[in-house]
Amino acid sequence: MAQNRQEINLVVITGMSGAGKTVAMQSLEDLGFFCIDNLPPVLLGKLTELLEQSSGMRKTALVIDLRGRDFFLSLFDSLDRLEKHHWIHYQILYLDASDQVLVQRYKETRRRHPLSPEGTTMDGIRLERNLLDEIKGRAHQIIDTSMMKPVQLKERIISRFTATGENTLTVTFQSFGFKYGVPIDADLIFDVRFLPNPHYVASLKPHTGKDSDVYEYVMKWQETKQFLDKLTDMLNFLLPHYQREGKMSLVVGIGCTGGKHRSVAVTEYLNRWFRDTEGTRVAHRDIEKN
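That's the UPF0042 nucleotide-binding protein sequence above. Prediction below.
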């Protein structure tokens, strides 16, 4: 049975309060990691059993910090026991920032430091640094977020934990009919109602843009070809920029009057064009409506 165990990639996120652990966890969650916040280290053994039984936790991330107080002291014993499970590969990600930046961040959020409920923020920071000194020494990677904005930290995390060749941006091309309303989750919307309409061709009207005769009708016009040339060129420019900014999903809405013919055909074309270079999906919201 041992040889059938799936290998688990486990990331333990820890570090100074205010240094960006929440952003790091959310970034890993966007990458498909199963994330657990503020797990007491004593429960790592139970988590190991769960990882062994589950097929959906191949990538798992834990935030473990001093909110667990006394529980945190058991972290090293728990990590030592974890190393006995050779099918679990773990690494410690430690987030840090300068004292001055941490103080400023607490002032901006108007929150108390978790280790200084009665004292000053600086008292809590000094105590936390002292308590975290050993785990920092065992960290596989340390990121100083002093000069980083949240989006920059997210970009760093995504770059660090994305496997080579793995698509981090999923593009959904969605057709829709304007008569039924604009999709509220669309990031970009393009109107193709200027194209010749198969609705007015009796033999094509009952069919959809997924059918070859309708698709070929929409694609044969010079204005369709010019539009698609310009649109694919613009999307080729935009998609890498969205990805670099840390966006994980993008919905491109293509609309015609009823969402059955022109928008469907153009959406199918775009999916075929980009599917070899991007993670793409197709959705036809109104294709079945009369």
